[in-house]
Every structure is written in C-alpha cells, then in structure tokens.
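Researcher: Predict the fold of protein disulfide-isomerase.
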Amino acid sequence: MWAPVGFLTLTLLLATRLDCTLALPLAQIDRSNFTSFVAGSTLVLLLHALPECPHEPSGLRPLLSSVTGLLPAAVRVAVSEDAQLAETSGIRSFPALRLYHGDADAPAVFRGPLTSATALASHLRREASPALLEATTTENIYEEIRASELTAVLFATPGSMARTVFAALPAADARLRRQVSFVVASPSLANELAESSGKLIWHGKGQGQPFLVLCRGLDGPDAETFVYPGELSAEGNEAASGEEATAAAESRAHTEAILEQQLASWLGLYRLPLLAEIGPHNFDQYEARGGVAAGGRAEEAAPPLPLFWLFVNASAEEAGRNDDARELVRSVAAGWRGRALFVWLDAERYEQHAASLALNRELLPALAAEHDGAHYVYAPPTRKGAAAPDAADAEGGGGGGVGTSAWEPTVAAREQLGGWVRGVVAGTLAPTLRSVAPPLLNLEPLTIVVASTFDELVLEATVDVLLLVTTDWCDGCEALDAEFEAVAGRWQDESRVRIARFDAGVNDLPRTLRIDKLPTILFIRAGATDAYELSHHRTERELTDAIVTHASTTLERPADLEEIRQAIEMLPRLQSETRALLEENARLRAELAALRQEQVLPQQRE
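Model: Structure tokens for protein disulfide-isomerase follow.
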C-alpha cells in the first residue's frame, strides 16, 4: 500500500484496484454557506450550474460524485445552482467549473481532465498539495502512472540528496505540480518492475543508485518513458566538523540548487507529448507556447515556440489517413522536442480556427504552423496515385491537404516534412497569405481592402486612408459599420482621402500592424510608415473631425449630404409656411391701415 505521504488514501487504492469508485452526494453550495465552505477546505472544485441547463453534459455530475470518494477530507467537490453566486465569480455561461484554493474571492478556471474519476482525483491532489506520493509496491507505481497524465518516479533511499531535491520541485514549480505526479520509491522496486512486466525497462539503471524515470501512460501512441541521463548522487564528508562541515554544507547546498534547476529543465522538456490532441482540457498548456530556458526552471520561459496544427477529419472513413498523418507528424516531431510544439484537432469541430490558418477543409489532413506572428501551410508534393487538389485551391493558397499517399510515413515524406518544419522554425519560409478575392470593381464609397490588396490600397497609397479593421462576427461592430458607411458617403468626392474596411476574420494583416483588438480604426497618412490609432472615435462627426485633424494636407470639411437632403426636404414646408406668413402679414397690414383710416376720418370732420 501507499505510505502516508501526500494525499493518496487507502480509499483510492481500493477503488482503483476494484475498478470502481465510491460515489458520494455532492455538497450543495449557495451564498449562505459558500464562504465558510471554501475557507474550511484546502481546495474546492465547484460546479456552477443552473437547475435546467441544456449545455451540461449528462455524465458530469456522476463523475464529480464518484471522485468525492477518492479525495482527502480537505479536498472537496461541490455544486452550486445559485446564479447570483456565479455572477460574483465572474461567470456568465453555464456550466462552469472553478477551483478555489481556500479563498472565495480568487477562483481559477478548472482545466484538468474529465476523462475518469481517477485522473480527476490525481489532478486535484496535485492542485491541493505539492507533497510527494511514496510508493511501497510496484502496483502503487502503476496505479499512479495510469491515473496521471505524466508521472515522475524517483528511485532513491530516504535522506539522499536526490530525494531532497526531488521533494523541492513540486513545491517550487507550480506548473510542474499541476502537470506531473511526483512519486518516490525504494531503488529495489525498480528491479521488481522490470522483472514483473517488462513495460518499464531501465536500461541497466538501479543497482542501488538513485535514478529518475518520467512516464506518460503505459499504452497507446502517446505512451513514453524517459530516464534522466544525469548524475543524481553526490558524495559528501558526513563526518566532517567545524569549518570542514560548513564548507561541506555549502557545497551540498550549491550542488542541490544546480541539480534542482537541471531536473526542472529536464521535466519541462518532456511535459508535453510529441503530438497531443488539443482541446479545452489542455489548451492553456499550449497557449503561452513558452519553451524552457537552457539550464533554467520550467517557469523561466524562453521565447514562444512554433506551434504546428494537424487538422484531421474525425469521420470513421478517414481513420486510416488520419493515423498515417499523425504517425508522420509524430515521427518528425521527435526531432524537435523542446524547440517546437505539435498538436492535432478535428477540423470540423474547429472549422473557424482552420479557416483562420488559411486551410481548405475539403483537403484533409492538413498541417499549418504559427510562429512569430505569422502562419504557414504545408503543401507536400502529391505522389503518384494520390488525389491532387484543385488547381484553383492550390493557386489561392488555401491548400495544405493532399491525397492519401502523401501522408504515408515513408522516409521521403519524413524528409519533406522535416525540411518544411526546419524552414518554419528558422524563419526562412515566406508566410502563407490568407486573403479572399478582392471586389471586381470596388467602386463604392467604402473601399473594401483584402490581404492581397493591402499594400496597394493602404501602405503604399498616395492618399490618406481611414481604415476600419473588423470582422463579420465582431460583437457590437454593426453600429460602427453604419457610421463608416456614412463617413465614406460624406468624403466620396474628396480624392485625397480613402475610407476603407478590412475583414480580419478572413484576411491576414501585415505583421507590422500589431493589432490586438477588434474593431480597430487606423488613420494612415500618405507615404507614412506608422498609423494613428483612432478606435476611441465612434461617430461620423468624430471620425470626420479626426480626418481633418490628421490629414497630410489641408482639407475642407465636406458638406454634410444628409443635412443638405434634410434641408431640401424641408423647402416645400418652409415655402408653405413663408406664404402663410406673408398672407398673415398682408392681412395685418390691411387691418392696421383700416385702423389708421378710422382715426383720420374723425379728425377731418372736426
């Protein structure tokens, strides 16, 4: 059984061995007990839901109920259907899973596995405590490897330097603690493991000396086992005294610090699979795309790594082609561990992302890459017998997929793909330009700019350009589109100004324009290399004022066509009102004249 180190309990051991879990009722949380519940726990996984939520998976609550029996008392799982409580945690959509580390005001988005109760329990244990798990049998080790995404097993005797350093890693490196399960065991268990199953082969390691093994599963295409190649033992003068003892202690502390950095760097190198399916459960691990600084801790991020996306068709009839593509990409990825990241995903489920990378979903599998703000599409040569892509697709740059035989993991295919990956990483390839076809005439007051015409109509234009960068799916952009239409109509007769719109959802922007939000309004003066950010202007009048202010030449404010139209429409009414006023004036003048006449006649009689 497990020794009492960390949070793995006998309950977990029995449940795992019997392939069952002890389902317990989920605690019910609302505003009345939320703060005390969180404060009284080391870690809380809280499901924020609604009484009737159509988006909640049917198996989610049973999974959470089953995991409660696998956790220590201080790690708790609960559910809340209090909408106002969810709002205080910043939740706007349901269901939502949040982690609370003893602080009700500091929720964190849960991104762990929801594949099984044991995997979830292992993840929550790591979240709750950096403590080691100590294995006393070979089955203990297998249990943790099966339940965890990644397991580091150190075979070393108690009190050794290796154990001291290994114990410090999960406490000092939060990212490693969330991803790696740390297990310590006696060196004698290593021989038992090798002899009992043959699944974990140590290549002569053991013999009483400490060594470290990193395991990602036991079976399947992603299963991997690595043995730390460095030295984990160091001799010291334990019997020294006085100055010698002080010097020995300082030397040991220095050696431990170096070893801790080396182990953290090595674990960080292998923390992600060669080729993993990406999704909500692990997206945050790839989002930053950070590497590991040489000789440094995993959290000391190097520049972002290139990220390669393999899009596949998840339908059953495409299984063979998908497997070939994954095997080919995985074989190439093996040579780029630590220097590039590789993932695969379903092109149908993530069609919007496929489109953003200029991929044609009709040609799958397809491979694209993102690196240094640019993206690239792989187009391997179609070999004899493979279905060729349409010429129009190839000419338009929307390829990236080829016939079945082009993805067979042959030596030639590996060399071809390896050369492309090398070019992407080195920056020697031209990025793929994602652009829709420009309008045939483009004679409307609002000029439509696409990626292929951006230089001509914006960056190299001989006129000033007011540019709206937006997308068709942008929330709240419709009102701004209408204002831009009005601005374009007002300035359509001014040849020194161009009012334009660019759809960033289907076109690539130049990398020199570091736009990080939509919509964005830019004003680029003729011949200038920089742009004015005018996104705070939202009305036709404000945009017109900005054009006059920033123009490269003196411009007269155009007449407001709408005001002129309204004035013209008012003319008949004004004419009628004027006629009525004139008639009223004539009547009053006649009445005044009559009154005067009445006053004159009596005076004449006298």
